[in-house]
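Reopening this one. Same input as before:
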Amino acid sequence: MYLLDKLKLIPGDIILTRSDEKNSSLICRITNSNFSHAILYVGESSYIHSDLCGVHSGNIQRLLIDKPQYVKVVRVDDPVAIEKAIIYARLQVGTSYSKISAANAFAKTFTKMDAKRQFCSRLVATAFEQGGIKLVANSYACLPQEIADSVLVCEVQDCVYQAEPKEIEFAMSIDPIKKQTEITNNILISVRKLLGNKVQSLSDITSALIADPKYDNEVTEIYDTSGYLTMWQYEQGKNPWRYNIDLFNALPLSESEKHTLAMKELKIANKLLDLYTNNLMQYLYIKEQYGLKYAKQQFCLYEILVKNALAHKLTVENILGK
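Same output, byte for byte:
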């Protein structure tokens, strides 16, 4: 088994894969392609893709590859486009999968009625099109192989290595991200029963309730009972050293290793702080402007997340002596 070297990857890299599984081999054979799946790497070991469970995130350290020739990583040389593509992909999380559009991609046909749903190569291609980079002729009906062959990407070389037994064990262990995906999908299934299929992602819920606040209480209750509002507790329990100076100092690392780790963590903390602060201000505006109970609930969530990000930032800044 093989893994991708995350030290060789940067945010915005596109990962094309296939496997020995029946469905993957069938797709490659029917489409005369080397790859059956497309993934967008968003940094910090995380990627976003669309599969039968819809659009969700994953951990690159859990992406086992059967053979080294079964993966290709390509890169777009445009930082602005990459940033916009990642923002777009994040907003698509929770969007349902389109079996029809995925099946019709080879024939280059799609229905506008299905345009809001996703499949793997559509997600990646439309994300970059939002950033001003048209990787393929038809972003809504394209194959992973077309992205791999695009003249607007260059291949990232030597980024695959043979996984160690401990790495394989971790990759196959219980994945908390799957629980997050399950929670997100359950929220969307319940909300769609109230608001209809116009809600394809979590971001659609806000605009739908602004347009029609009839189900404000019901949607708020769905979130309350979903487990979504306390997902942040898992990360804090797993990595408490990120939020406590004494615990960080107690890590079994040399001083130089701690400094390197702190520099990396500072970048993560700053990105999260920017993201959470932006969302906090958006929900503050919506709460004050429209009086939605749902907006107040989300505002309270992002208050907690901003507080956590600040604790993270202050911890590593202290380690760095700032």
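So the earlier flakiness isn't reproducible anymore. For the record, The chain has two domains: 2-162, 175-319.
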